[in-house]
């Protein structure tokens, strides 16, 4: 069986991330693992055309940073879980991959928006990039997740054996 001691849950606060968070909590509880919840703030991009050099993107304000910290802290589960909340700035894919390697994560549990066609081509997929480049297993959760009543009432550890 795969030893799971540290689980990384990157969140963008979407519905898919919320479902992935609940699954990450269940896995952390069942395996007695530590859970790291990470949100990566992307710096706003400025599109500039002209002959002069483009100015750097504006800094994220202290108020925006504090609001994101508070939103991140609201992601908590049962008090027995060991959860660490982290807020970083930069490219989400790069930060997720760096944190998973630096913190020796055994599993990444993240939501997927399930974009297809032109939306996927234009916007890309952080989940797909992480899935392709991560050095540990990645579990993606696609919305919608079946209702709790439809799921078997077995611990995640037992489900992983089947």
Give the topology.
Elements (H helix, E strand, L loop, with lengths): L5 E5 L4 H17 L2 E8 L20 H12 L8 E8 L2 H11 L4 E6 L4 H7 L2 H8 L4 E5 L13 H6 L1
Helix pairs in contact: 3-5
Please describe what this structure looks like:
By secondary structure, the chain is of the alpha/beta class. It has one domain (6-42, 80-161): HUPs (Rossmann fold). The chain is built from six helices and five strands. It has a five-stranded parallel beta sheet with strand order 3-2-1-4-5, with helices on both faces. α2 links the parallel β2 (34-41) and β3. α3 (92-102) runs parallel beside α5. The longest helix is centred in the first third of the chain and has 17 residues, at 15-31. The radius of gyration is 17 Å and the shape is globular.
What's the N-to-C terminus distance? 11 Å
Mind telling me which CATH architecture this is? Answer: 3-Layer(aba) Sandwich
Give me the oligomer status: single chain
Ranges where pLDDT stays below 50 over 5 or more residues in a row are: none
Helical coverage, percent range? 25-40%
Taking all Cα atoms into account, the compactness measure Rg is 17 Å
Number of strands: 5
What does the main sheet amount to?
5 strands, parallel
Count of structural domains = 1
Q: What general outline do the C-alpha atoms trace?
A: globular
CATH level 1 class label: Alpha Beta
How do the SSEs run, as a string of H and E? EHEHEHEHHEH
Indicate the proportion of strand residues: 15-25%
CATH topology description: Rossmann fold
Round the mean pLDDT to the nearest integer and report it.
78
Structural class category: alpha/beta
* Spatial order of strands in the largest sheet: 3-2-1-4-5
Output the CATH homologous superfamily: HUPs
Helical stretch tally: 6
């Amino acid at each position: 069986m795969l030893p799971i001691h540290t689980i990384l849950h990157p969140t963008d606060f979407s519905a898919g991330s919320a479902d992935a968070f609940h699954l990450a909590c269940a896995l952390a509880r069942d395996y007695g693992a530590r859970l790291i919840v990470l949100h990566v703030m992307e710096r706003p991009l400025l599109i500039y055309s002209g002959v002069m050099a483009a100015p750097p993107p504006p800094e994220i304000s202290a108020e925006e940073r504090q609001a994101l910290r508070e939103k991140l802290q609201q992601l908590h589960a049962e008090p027995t879980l060991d959860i660490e909340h982290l807020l970083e700035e930069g490219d989400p894919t790069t930060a997720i991959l760096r944190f998973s390697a630096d913190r020796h994560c055994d599993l990444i549990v993240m939501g997927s928006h399930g974009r297809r066609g032109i939306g996927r081509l234009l916007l890309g997929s952080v989940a797909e990039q992480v899935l392709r480049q991560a050095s540990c297993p990645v579990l993606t959760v696609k919305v919608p997740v079946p209702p709790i009543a439809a799921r078997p009432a077995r611990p995640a550890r037992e489900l992983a054996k089947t």
